[in-house]
C-alpha cells in the first residue's frame, strides 16, 4: 500500500515520523508509516480521550498509569503542559 500524506503540517508531527525535526531523535516515533504501508487505517476503531478527572486508582487503569512527566525527554513538550492531564484509551 502506498502512503500519500496531504497534511501540510505533517512534517511538524515528529511523533508520527521523526526525521530529527524539532531537535528530535530520528526514528524515535510511533512507526505509523509502516502501519499505514501494511494497510492499517484505524477504520472501525473507537477511542476515548479524557481531559480531566481521571481515577488513576481504578483497577483498569492503576497498573498502566504513569505519574512521571516525560517532558524531560523532548524539549518541544515543555512548551505546553496541557498534555499532562490528558488520558487516551
From TrEMBL:
Highest taxon in the source lineage: Eukaryota
An example molecular function term from Gene Ontology annotations: serine-type endopeptidase activity
InterPro entries assigned: Peptidase_S8/S53_dom (IPR000209), Peptidase_S8/S53_dom_sf (IPR036852), Peptidase_S8_Asp-AS (IPR023827)
DNA damage recorded as keyword: no
Limits of the Peptidase S8/S53 domain: 42-66
Any coiled-coil regions, as ranges: none
GO biological process, one term: peptide hormone processing
GO cellular component: extracellular space; membrane; neuron projection
Species per Swiss-Prot/TrEMBL record: Muraenolepis orangiensis
Keywords: Hydrolase, Protease, Serine protease
Family named by the database record: Belongs to the peptidase S8 family.
Name the record gives this protein: Proprotein convertase 2
Functional note: Serine endopeptidase which is involved in the processing of hormone and other protein precursors at sites comprised of pairs of basic amino acid residues. Responsible for the release of glucagon from proglucagon in pancreatic A cells.
Organism placement in taxonomy: Eukaryota, Metazoa, Chordata, Craniata, Vertebrata
